[in-house]
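Re: the 378-residue chain
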Amino acid sequence: MLLRKISLFLLALACASQSFAQQQPVPPELAAKSWLLLEVSSGQTLTAEKPDERLEPASLTKLMTAYLTFAAIHKKTISVDQALPVSEKAWRTGGSKMFIRVDTQVPVDDLLKGMIVQSGNDACVTLAEGIAGSEENFAQMMNREAARLGMKNSHFTNATGLPDPQLYTTARDLSLLASALIRDFPEEYKKYYSMKEFRYNNITQPNRNRLLFIDPSVDGVKTGHTEAAGYCLISSAQREKRRLLSVVLGTKSDSTRATESLKLLNWGFISYDAVTLFAKDQPVSTLRVWKGETKEVKAGFTSDLSIVIPKGYADKVESKFIPDPRLIAPIEQGQKLGILQVSIEGKPFNEYSVVALENVPLGNIFTRIIDTIRLWFN
């Protein structure tokens, strides 16, 4: 009997001391072909199912069209107030429309609303032609931008997402694209993607993203649907200072893509906490510099270093800074100076590059000679 009690006690102790890796939150199962949940600020994937399976993106393609349009506006290639001509090709493009008329001119601002809120294919082609001269040229721009963003399993052939055998992407690639759009164009994202309806040419169309009407924390992003792709939804929500992004591909109905996306977002917010280890420009350490104009350099991060961990583990996070040996000037701001090793309950979690927060130019000839001599004996 005593032996049995001891065995039960040891078993309970073993269960209580399970490692961090063994106590990850159990993700929900979704009625979809593929999905991924991303914590935007840290870039951490919280859960995923077949994230690298190539699938048809349907109107999720329009995220890349929007990204390139916002980039063109920032580069002053086009302006928001500029009116673009509507070609016959744009007017005849099938699928969803904002109902622009051929041989008229439509402001870029309206075209963006027509593309993002109404999912207008005619608006997409008009923007593509206005930026690149033709939709074919624009598709080449889309592929170059996809490569730059690290979208390794994507290929674009048009600006709309209309079916094409060579048009494909993945849940992981779409998370990279959507998070880049939110990060690189925050004002445009805020202005356009939370709009619940848009009226053009005396026709009012609601945003197809049902979550905008259900959850006030959701402020985007985009729906997509074709027979082959099924019903798809990329959605993003911000609660307090945390932003999650879900990609749900290949559900069987409009309502299912909304409920499954919300299920994924709620699970992420409930199951995980975000911990900021170091704020932007906060020194992790001050390091000795040889042969420099100054003898020290501050090392840290150029943006907040945040990690996402299961709830209840915030006080179990530890970090250790390992600097590079013998830092010799000149040192440029942003130059890697070492790594920060992060562990949870003593188990390795991740490593992050620590960089110079300031420049350290070469010192004068006297300083360089003295430090050279010192280094011989150090």
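The chain is about 35% helix and 30% strand.
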